[in-house]
Design goal:
single chain; 111 residues; globular; alpha+beta; six-stranded antiparallel beta sheet; SH3 type barrels
Length: 111
């Protein structure tokens, strides 16, 4: 598999899940740094949704990248550590400034 890079949006298989976790095969935003992704066998990622979100920042952030096929929101509160075996093809990527804004939202949530 090609290197999994921070800031990429990739397909991932999130099943099995419990409760209100995002499920199924869906896009995720890769948060973890490249060395971690390469050496750990896991990545840290956030689920994306194409359903308009009622909750605003810091719980969600609308992706401004026009390369995505649909309007999409990062569900900042849906952070997961995933095996690299769950990670599929690259869909797109986001700019470092937008990624930093999303990480700021996560920092607000976890305090």
């Amino acid at each position: 598999m090609a290197k999994i890079l921070r800031g990429e949006i990739r397909w991932a298989d999130l099943n099995p899940v419990v409760g209100r976790e995002q499920s199924g095969e869906r896009p995720v935003l890769i948060l973890s740094n490249n060395i971690f992704n390469e050496r750990s066998g896991t990545v840290i990622a956030m689920a994306l949704s194409s359903q308009e979100q009622r909750a605003g920042f810091p719980l969600t952030h609308e992706i401004s990248n026009s390369k995505l096929p649909k309007r999409s929101w990062v569900k900042i509160s849906q952070i997961r550590t995933l095996s690299t075996e769950r990670i599929g093809k690259v869909i797109s990527s986001i700019e470092p400034e937008e990624l930093a804004h999303i990480v700021d939202g996560l920092n607000e949530i976890i305090g």
